[in-house]
Amino acid sequence: MRCTISGTLRLLLRASTTGLIFSGLTLSHVANAQTAQDDFDSCKAGLQQRAVEGGVSEPIAQQVFSKIKYQPRVIELDRSQPEFVQTFPGYFSKRVNDWRINKGRELAAKHKELLADLTKKYGIPAHYLLAFWGLETNFGGYKGKMPVLDSLATLACDPRRSTFFSKELITAVKLLEAQSLDQERMVGSWAGAMGHTQFMPSAYAAYAVDGDNDGQINLWDSEADALTSAANFLAQLGWQPGFRWGREVMLPESFDYRLLGYSNRKSVTEWNDMGVTKAKGDALGESDIASYLVMPAGHEGPTFLAYPNFRVIMRWNNSEFYAIAVGRLADRIAGDGKMIASLPDLPAYSRNHIIALQQSLNARGIDVGGADGILGPATREGIRQFQLSQDMVADGFPSLSVMEALGVTITPNS
């Protein structure tokens, strides 16, 4: 009996202690959450004052900021890094697909008159406007679900990029007042991109246009406003009317892969004279237009000759993958066929794989900077140097053979 009572006392004491610990953790969590909320409320009050000083009327500022809420999920998304490195075949096949091509053609017919007017006024062909629309929001099918002002305020009150997002928030509030927008309908990405074309507030304020002439610029509800604004934006970014984005090409067998990339720009005539042809083997012809070669999936995948409008697309979204997807989706909407080169079957590299690759290159005296798991220009150039030293095709691409030669083991979930 004594033993049973002693065991019971021990269980009761253990339960009591555990409860106190759990209670302490809960209280600590609540206290931290309350501190974060207090900090946000204080920051929000300061932002409200700045909005008024920036020209927003006091009644509108008070009404708008009283509804703005802290969104912890936004901070989580801002801090998160993808586990795997996106490969071009995976990226491209998800974006340039039959559904988007067919939908783009359907909408080209629906907005035929408007698109013709936009091409005449801004110099942007219809199929490019449709391609941007398709990639940004699935032609308006998904514009995001986060309350834009909440997201911007949350990021504005976070020290990491406070200056940038504070300006974007105040610009967004000014837009709300000037265009009589509905705060509840202002939803978008977690970073504050808005509407059919996913404009940040600064782009909205600088480039958005009233395309349907109703006296209001509304990129959520007006397709005409969104398409007109996209045309104006691209024209202001420097789009060259009458020129393509680029094209798929074929390289000669003796090609020097060190000539890939933006730093090796040449005229179309020069590439033609070096034996570069169109994808089906036809001559490129003669032109003084500056261009450069992009090989997003290594020498076993497609190669593209990028013209100045390619860089304009990258000013919208600074990604070669994105620019190729816009260009090719535009081509397909306009009636062009599939790419000639096939997309290679590439493994899904994790960030840890790329970190190991970078560490191995640095250890061999090929300086690629810090091992951050990002496959940027310095890492690609480092791979190219290593490939040259090993008599491999120097395409700067981390193929399985390159990984193996550098001692990087590719295993699932590593």
How would you summarize what this structure contains?
This protein has 414 residues and is mainly alpha-helical.
How would you explain this protein's 3D organization?
By secondary structure, the chain is mainly alpha-helical. 54% of the residues lie in helices and 5% in strands. The chain has helices at residues 2-53, 58-67, 72-79, 88-95, 98-110, 112-122, 126-137, 148-156, 162-178, 201-207, 223-237, 268-273, 308-316, 320-333, 351-363, 377-389, 400-405, and strands spanning 146-147, 187-188, 246-250, 266-267, 277-278, 290-294, 303-306. α1 (2-53) crosses α9 (162-178) and α5 (98-110) crosses α14. The longest helix has 52 residues, at 2-53. Mean pLDDT is 92; it is low at 1-18.
Q: Write the H/E string, N to C.
A: HHHHHHHEHHEHHEEHEEEHHHHH
Mean pLDDT across all residues, rounded? 92
Rg over CA atoms, rounded to whole Å, is: 27 Å
Query: What percent of residues adopt helix (DSSP H or I)?
Result: 40-55%
- What class do helices, strands and sheet pairing give? mainly alpha
Tell me the span between the first and last alpha carbons.
55 Å
Biggest beta sheet attributes: 5 strands, antiparallel
Number of strands: 7
For the biggest β-sheet, the strand order reads 4-6-7-3-5
Number of helices: 17
